[in-house]
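ok here's Chitinase domain-containing protein 1, seq below lol
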Amino acid sequence: MRTLFNLLWLALACSPVHTTLSKSDAKKAASKTLLEKSQFSDKPVQDRGLVVTDLKAESVVLEHRSYCSTKARDRHFAGDVLGYVTPWNSHGYDVTKVFGSKFTQISPVWLQLKRRGREMFEVTGLHDVDQGWMRAVRKHAKGLHIGKSGRPGVEDWTYDDFRNDEIEELSKTVVQVAKNQHFDGFVVEVWNQLLSQKRVTDQLGMFTHKEFEQLAPVLDGFSLMTYDYSTAHQPGPNAPLSWVRACVQVLDPKSKWRSKILLGLNFYGMDYATSKDAREPVVGARYIQTLKDHRPRMVWDSQASEHFFEYKKTSLGVGGQASAGAHTSICAQSLQVRLELARELGVGVSIWELGQGLDYFYDLL
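and the structure came out like this:
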């Protein structure tokens, strides 16, 4: 708090002072500013030198707002594509209006399923439901399912709350909400809740081939979280390609239900503060600002099939201490490689989340 007040005081104290830049200073300032296109492109990202391993920060900044408007409704990926949309990222709503035809399902993260007593359930979060947006998206994307979706997390449930004798009442509650809100279905996040109770499995992984085989015949799909592989204590790639492949093959080694698997794609990068054993996700706007501020050398990790870069950042505080930062970046080449893997494995993809990445990413779908 003290640092914040000092900064405000300095800004106010300096505000009456007026200075001018000399011509040479102006030229230097201009040369440090990376250009950004503000118009759409008539070429997809694949034809603009951005789906490459030798990526340049200047190229990313220049093109990040520029998607191919003439092919915004064309699909290049034949499998199912599920996109998550959240209330805290409004750009995701805009993305679905423009690129809705590229998706087969959209899942707004609006709802929570809560227990209110014996055979009593309530769906909360209905205030976030935007019927106008749903109508607009469906108008431009025929056949798109919204609400395969809802993503109602079962918050604060215990293992004993999942009882067979209450399935009927639970089903009535969620079906009625789907009818009232014009949803086509639900994406339900359950497994993490069960895992926290330590009653799921003692085998390798949270969700194994055994559970997959039991549920595959009765569910429309499975959204895999094939990202966030590395930790703050062990910085590294977000989703090593060999690990992503293994996740699918372990679940369905005989390819019996592959079409129901949705390979998770992250549309965000991860920033690691190496001196603090800390990490935080980085979405499009901050990613672009980091590239502008530091102009780092982008390095392709051929093993993980991801780009990363290192840079030094200055923390606010006494002395403005510098610390090293490593960033696993979000890039078109990484996404393209994973889309090719999805085609090879015969699976679909799920994206967390729409609006987080760069606009030209959607040219790939």
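fwiw Residues 44-56+64-268+332-364 form a domain with the TIM Barrel fold (CATH 3.20.20.80). kinda neat tbh
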